Amino acid sequence: MYPDLEGKTVLITGAGTGIGQAMARRFGQEKANVVINYFSDQENPDDTIVDIQKNGGQAVKIKGDVSKEEDVQAMIDKAVDTFGSLDVMINNAGIENEVPSTEMTLDNWNKVMSTNLTGMFLGCRDALKYMTDHGIEGSIINMSSVHQQIPWPHFVHYAASKGGAKLLTETLALEYAPKKIRVNSIAPGAIDTPINAEKFDDPALKKGVIELIPIGYIGKPEEVAACAVWLASKEASYVTGLTLYVDGGMTKYPGFQAGKG
């Protein structure tokens, strides 16, 4: 537990399901004020809000598209109007789909990039504006992926967006360190979320993924959330510009495990 997070206001984009939902619930356990952004009416954050409140935190939801400037500003306004501040910004919203690169349309490329990278930039920009204007020594966490490091054929738009997220995070960390605003990223590997459900429901595909993970199992959203609360807390007060890989060792060349290669 991180007592300094109690009463802090945390805005999480894409928090209707998966890793975002797990982070919202974990910050609720830390008794934070959580602003849950979601994109689709199919995502219902109400159960998450109830869970947060049961654990002593507060929560509010706001629907919005992170690729739209007016929606991102509305999220910031919701946090400030409801809870009086914004202390932690987590840019988690992201999408992916498999398309061979020569068949990828410009519209498909733009859709992924506008959510994953432009949306991240807008969230960072508007959070930084608020924090610098109000003298808040805040924390920004960007959700990247192991594919900021590992090439991923048929997902060139996704990999490119996460490669961009790496240098976006590092550049902003350097730029705003004098303001005591920390900017870090988390790069999950294979995590058991709805976006991966179809793949992990297939025993053969799941086995193939596990073979790429030295620790030997698919990660849980709660394991990513545990890293997020640490990065947001004072326990990580001297950490900025970091990419924290939460991947069971996937980025450590698993083909060479046990002396192979």
Automatic annotation (TrEMBL):
The keyword Oxidoreductase applies. Its EC number is 1.1.1.47. One of its GO terms (molecular function) is glucose 1-dehydrogenase (NAD+) activity. Belongs to the short-chain dehydrogenases/reductases (SDR) family. The keyword Oxidoreductase applies. It is an enzyme of class 1 (oxidoreductase). Keywords: Oxidoreductase. It comes from the Bacteria. Homotetramer. NCBIfam families: PRK07231.1, PRK08936.1. InterPro entries: NAD(P)-bd_dom_sf, Sc_DH/Rdtase_CS, SDR_fam. PROSITE patterns: ADH_SHORT. It catalyses: D-glucose + NADP(+) = D-glucono-1,5-lactone + NADPH + H(+); D-glucose + NAD(+) = D-glucono-1,5-lactone + NADH + H(+). It holds the Pfam family adh_short_C2. It comes from Bacillus pumilus (strain SAFR-032). This is glucose 1-dehydrogenase [NAD(P)(+)]. SUPFAM superfamilies: NAD(P)-binding Rossmann-fold domains.
